[in-house]
Amino acid sequence: MILLGAAGLLYPPTRVAAAVCLLALMVVMFPANVYAARMPNPPKSMAGRLDLRTAEEMLYLGAALAVGFGSIQ
């Protein structure tokens, strides 16, 4: 799903729609990442990394906004 969204960002006619969909997907999935990071026995990939995950999420959200909406004329 995410790879299709990434491909949609590269194809100009679908760029804005792909950016909106990826932005929505990332926003909806973020609470699951928070939940996983705060579990008593979190997965190894999430252990103690909530601050890093949050920063990474903000970076990706900004990139989706820049690519998708930076191209509107």
TrEMBL record:
This is DoxX family protein.
